[in-house]
Design brief:
The chain is α/β, with parallel strands linked by helices. Helix content is 21%, strand content 32%. It has helices spanning 28-33, 59-71, 88-98, 122-134, 193-196; strands spanning 3-10, 15-18, 21-24, 43-52, 78-82, 106-109, 141-145, 148-151, 155-157, 166-168, 175-178, 181-184, 198-201, 206-210, 218-221. The strands form four sheets. Strands 4-1-5-6-7-8-11-12 form an eight-stranded mixed beta sheet, with helices on both faces. The chain has a three-stranded antiparallel beta sheet with strand order 13-14-15. Helix 2 packs across helix 3 (88-98). It is globular, with a radius of gyration of 16 Å. It starts with a strand and ends with a strand. Residues 196-223 have low confidence and may be disordered.
């Protein structure tokens, strides 16, 4: 049975209602316990790396996630990162640079509704992300969300309410996941991150992630 490391970082998927609205409160262990069937698919280990709203995700946290994956890289067959949706695409792009050409799958997922919501999409997203991470053909960094796998450097959140939140920009989705089946739509060569974007540090506080020509560059400040 394959070994999967699930890294929990917070986000809507882990949130509960509080006095000031939704706040990340559930642990990764609690989230995994709410997803039936995953214990039969793999040996799952959960690492609680942080528990924050994804709007507070910064380059410092990107490095923490990448270091956690690299330090456990030889011990697991795949990695699933639980993350808030607002900045998930940015983290996926950053990890694509920090861990380039990974032969093992690094899958990011989250949900539009918290795990505790009766109509949550969290259970299916986690289950399908683990399925995708277990597949022998999966590799590199990707986002799995609402039954669709998107390469990490091409994902963009397009919808704030629909469960179908992410689209693949100027590149076909990698696969569709239906029940326990992974239907691969794209079987060609996946471009390297260097072919799609540039990522560089202007100084010790400002990072620039320059996207494709059609997309405006985003600047992140270390705090």
């Amino acid at each position: 049975m394959k070994q999967i490391l699930m890294i929990a970082t917070g986000g809507t998927i882990a949130s509960k209602e509080g006095g000031d609205g939704l706040t990340p409160a559930m642990t990764g262990e609690e989230l995994a316990a709410n997803v039936p069937g995953i214990e039969k698919k793999c040996d799952l280990t959960v690492l609680q790396l942080m528990n924050i709203d994804s709007t507070n995700m910064r380059p410092r946290q990107w490095l923490m996630i990448s270091e956690a994956i690299l330090s456990h890289y030889d011990n697991y067959d795949g990695f699933v990162v639980l993350h808030g949706t607002d900045t998930m695409a940015y983290t996926a792009a950053a990890l694509s640079y920090l861990i380039q050409d990974s032969r093992k799958p690094i899958v990011l997922t989250g949900s539009q509704k918290p795990m505790g919501d009766p109509y949550t999409d969290a259970k299916l997203n986690i289950y399908q992300s683990i399925l995708y991470a277990l597949d022998d053909k999966s590799c590199r960094v990707s986002i799995v969300f609402n039954g669709k796998a998107v390469i990490g450097t091409r994902a963009r959140k397009q919808r704030t309410r629909s469960f179908d939140a992410f689209e693949s920009m100027n590149f076909p989705p990698l696969a569709i996941i239906h029940d326990d089946r992974i239907i691969r739509h794209y079987t060609g060569v996946i471009p390297k991150p260097s072919d799609l974007k540039t990522y560089h540090q202007l100084d010790d506080r400002v990072f620039v992630l320059k996207l494709t020509p059609e997309v405006k560059a985003d600047i992140f400040y270390l705090i």
